[in-house]
Structures are given as structure tokens and as C-alpha cells.
């Protein structure tokens, strides 16, 4: 087999995808079983939990999800009373989303569970490996964004 032949087990984009799918499956199970929310819904809650109200398009950018996924997650969360919608004073064509008291309570409950899951996933890594992994992932994200696809 020529050296330039693609071997999936050695192809970093494939390995990243496999690792992401494995982690996502674990996290999706936790979020769905314990809290009745999807990964996309949790991303919206987590983003809103980190700060002030945001326009949906800002959530799309921050979450790296498509508009339809964010819209569906927001509708589901709004329907459950976890987020609220207000007019955007800066753009009358848009609105802003924010956590309700129930949404904030959910965030305060799920966030420690998410951190515990991360700790469990990374338990076998030395502190320097965790830092290196974070740095490398950020560099890969930047390189992918720079590709412009």
C-alpha cells in the first residue's frame, strides 16, 4: 500500500470525529436520562448560563450549531419554561433569549454534572496533557476555520 494511501485509523480528522462521537454519546445519555434535554438544548442553556441574554444568531456562532438546530432547541426550552424571549432593542427584527429562573436552576444543576463527566473522561491524563490537549484542540479549530469551508 502506498505511503500516501488514506488509513482511517491514522487520519486525524477521522480520529477526532470518532472521539467526538464517543464523548457525545456519553454526554447525550447523561443529559437525556438525568435532565430530559438534548445536547443542543444543553449548549443553549450553557451559553445563556455563562452570561446575559443573547440573540439566536449569537448563540449559533458561539455554539457552532446551525440555525435550525438552535431554533428547535430554543423552542423546546421555551416551551418548557427554561428560557424566555424578549424584543431586541438594538434590532427590532430580532429577539434575545435568556434563562428563566427554572432555566438558571437547571444550569446550576447540570453544570457540576458536566464538569464531573469531564473530570471522569480526563482522569487518566496528567495536568500537562490536559493543557496540551486543550491547546491542540484550539489550534485545530483555528486551522479549520482558516480553511474557510
Detailed description of the structure:
The longest helix is centred in the first third of the chain and has 24 residues, at 12-35. The two termini are 30 Å apart. It contains six helices and two strands; from the N terminus they run ααααββαα. The protein has helices spanning 12-35, 39-50, 56-63, 67-79, 101-121, 127-147; strands spanning 83-87, 95-99. Helix 1 packs across helix 5. It has one domain: Winged helix-like DNA-binding domain superfamily/Winged helix DNA-binding domain (Arc Repressor Mutant, subunit A, Orthogonal Bundle). A hairpin with a 7-residue loop joins strand 1 (83-87) and strand 2 (95-99). Helices cover 66% and strands 7% of the residues. By secondary structure, the protein is mostly helical. It has a two-stranded antiparallel sheet. The protein is globular, with a radius of gyration of 18 Å.
Broad structural category? mainly alpha
Strand content: 5-15%
What Rg do the Cα atoms give?
18 Å
Summarize the helix and strand pattern as letters.
Answer: HHHHEEHH
Which CATH architecture is right?
Orthogonal Bundle
**Number of DSSP strand runs:** 2
- What is the average per-residue confidence, as pLDDT, rounded to a whole number? 91
**CATH class identity:** Mainly Alpha
CATH topology: Arc Repressor Mutant, subunit A
Euclidean distance between termini CA atoms:
30 Å
Tertiary shape: globular
Which regions contain 5 or more consecutive residues with pLDDT less than 50? none
Sheet with the most strands, sense and barrel status: 2 strands, antiparallel
How would you write the strand order of the largest sheet? Answer: 1-2
How many distinct helices? 6
Whole-number count of domains = 1
Percent of residues in helices: 55-70%
CATH superfamily: Winged helix-like DNA-binding domain superfamily/Winged helix DNA-binding domain
GO molecular function: DNA binding; DNA-binding transcription factor activity
InterPro entries: HTH_MarR-typ, Metal_resp_HTH_trans_reg, Tscrpt_reg_MarR-type_CS, WH-like_DNA-bd_sf, WH_DNA-bd_sf
Domain HTH marR-type: 1-142
Pfam family, one: MarR
Amino acid at each position: 500500500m502506498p505511503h500516501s494511501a488514506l488509513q482511517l485509523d491514522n487520519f486525524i480528522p477521522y480520529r477526532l470525529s470518532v472521539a467526538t462521537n464517543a464523548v457525545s454519546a456519553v454526554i447525550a445519555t447523561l443529559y437525556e436520562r438525568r435532565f430530559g434535554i438534548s445536547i443542543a438544548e444543553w449548549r443553549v442553556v450553557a451559553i445563556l448560563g455563562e452570561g446575559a441574554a443573547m440573540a439566536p444568531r449569537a448563540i449559533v456562532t458561539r455554539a457552532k450549531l446551525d440555525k435550525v438546530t438552535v431554533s428547535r432547541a430554543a423552542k423546546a426550552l421555551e416551551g418548557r419554561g427554561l428560557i424566555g424571549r424578549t424584543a431586541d432593542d438594538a434590532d427590532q427584527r430580532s429577539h434575545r433569549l435568556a434563562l428563566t429562573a427554572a432555566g438558571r436552576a437547571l444550569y446550576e444543576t447540570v453544570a457540576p454534572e458536566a464538569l464531573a463527566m469531564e473530570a471522569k473522561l480526563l482522569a487518566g491524563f496528567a495536568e500537562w496533557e490536559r493543557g496540551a490537549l486543550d491547546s491542540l484542540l484550539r489550534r485545530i479549530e483555528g486551522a479549520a476555520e482558516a480553511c474557510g469551508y
